[in-house]
Amino acid sequence: MDKSAEPGRRQRAYRSQRLRARGLAWEQIASVWETDFPEIGPRVALRWAHNLSHQEVADRWNTADAGESTMVKARIYQFEHWPVKGRRPSVAALHALARIYQVTARRLLTDAEYALYNTGDRAEIDQIDYRQADSNFNGRSHSSPGAAPAFPGTAEVALPTLSQIRDRRPLSAGEQLTLYARESDLILSEAESSNVGGSTIERLNRDLRRIADSYLKTPTGPLLADLRRLRDEALRLLEGHQPLRHRRDLYLIVGWAMTFLGWVSTDLGRPDAAENHAQAAQHFGVEAGHEGLLAWTCKTRQVAAYWEDRKAEALAWGERGLRFATRAGGETEVMLASTLALDYARLGRVQDAHAMLRHAQGVAPGRTNHPGGPLSCTPERALSYWADAYLVLNDPARALEMATRSVEISQGRPERTRNLGTERMTTLHIARAHIDVGALDGAAEALAPILQTPVELRAAPLLLQLGEVEGRVPLPFRSGGQGKMIREAIGVFRAETRPHTEG
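Above: the chain sequence. Below: its structure as tokens.
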């Protein structure tokens, strides 16, 4: 049997204890394990029923002094794997095992195995019976290995053919009711068993928040590796069994991790990869029934489409995302409404842009349903989007006011909670607004800290936004003075920045 398919000791203990509490004898509990795992033999099933390790069986053997030489766990293993391999248990060994497991010696053997003993040994085996030591033995237990116990538990739940055979047996109404009640008991025990606990979910969420908070403050490579490990751990856990509430938690962790991977992919100049991550994340958002995650997957696809110059498609993703976001409310609704206002402005839909700005500014942003970092919409980030929209709507004075407020709020936060990616982009809005009102000195001053950004933290959208700043410098000022200095400084910055997707 594949070791990975074996039930763990905790699962074996819980199940056997529940069945013991219902009155099943050890040999009946072994029959339940044999029916659920047809590949195991009676000696393994009885050890599982008692929830013992090979070493613990050997220890009990030696304590009872069964007459053999000192027993070791390897010998117990060999007994279990005979006759395919291993070693045939002697009659004395069967006597010792029957005493440990509180069953008959015959119950330790299949029909085929029993036939391999000679006539004299079989007669002796038939006389070995320790069932009276079993407090649940009632004299009616079935010791024949080939026969199903009267109340075999719920092994049939996973094997419908056995269920059909059972239902054709002539059981009385009372026996049927007792049997089905015990099946429900096992269904409950299996439903309550889990490979995930609340502490694991909290740890995964804590790791996700740590990665989000560290983004664009520390090198991206290690964070990407951490993010992938987090996603893969949650996916591995989903292969096991857990309550529905924890399964939903795992869906969300995987979905947020993939959404984050999509966002980072765009920042590293690969919006095509972002599409793959966001599409996969949407599946998990649907499975979890989480409007916030679905809204952010749409937002991620909107960003990817915009930076690939597919503005109409970006608008469509923004509109779809707002439908989810309206139901999610809070910061998510503010983000998607602000996104849509900006997209309307870029496409020249001025009235729609102003209406959507009013919508965004009227949402109470108190509710949070995201991991934070770039997948959040703090007040300063909302102000940054609004400033960008007002720049496109040719209102640089209002844009400058909002962008300045945004940076002030961000710089007033503890370093740990600052969104430096948004802060840098917003500072470029300030530079653009200064250029639009003819204040090139102000633009140069705003650009100075941005041009000191470490190479490893220079996201692709930052470079694209710098191109917009450079293109806004009026033609008469490009060949001299502050305008020339701005363009040359941006050129040096761009030349020093190695694309993230290289090597």
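Residues 244-267 form the longest helix (24 residues).
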